[in-house]
Amino acid sequence: MAPLRVLCVHGYRQNSNAFRDKTGALRKLLKKHVELVFINAPHYILPRQSNSQEKDNPSIASDEEQRGWWFSNIQERSFDARQECESSLGLAESLDTLRLAVKELGPFDGILGFSQGAALVAMICALQERKLETIFNFRFAILVAGFRSACAQHQHFYEDLQATVPSLHVFGQEDKVIPEQMSRDLLSMFPGAHILTHPGGHFIPATSAHRQIYQEFLQRFQ
After folding, report:
1. What are the residue ranges spanned by the domains of the chain?
2. What is the mean pLDDT of the chain?
């Protein structure tokens, strides 16, 4: 049986290599059943930038090649998930990056996003649901520490959204970067969503205690 192919969308201030490293436990947990394919966001972030969330964020790439999917502060080219803004910078290019990844690296069975990447995955699910993007045809989505964008420019993604793609939503009860309630706010847009909660912070849980939840969700697509 061929493994499921899953496109992986990293978080803000990560890159494909850093995200691959951070998902080592998950890859080991799902070995032989799932192939994770990692891509880079198109926008570079200056390492000197910082925000109040970073001290609680263990996912940040340690090297200088930090990337992001869009910026909530256009002038500073920075991002904060809780920052309300009228317009953002960079989302169009990121959607193009996802389209190109599907075209050149696909096909994919599913898509997995972490933090800002999970917020982007929710937008992809909205486009797929409304059949606005025929290239997006994911059979399932996994959103880890996902959230609704606070940017007014992005609210059309969520209006009347009832995504039928099967989804697994993962969030930590002690997440200081994306608090649990921010992730729960997405659930109403994904009827029948599966949920995995863990007592930790801003990371992807992948202990033996979580194996059954991941496997039960994924086995229907194998």
Report:
1. 4-221
2. 91
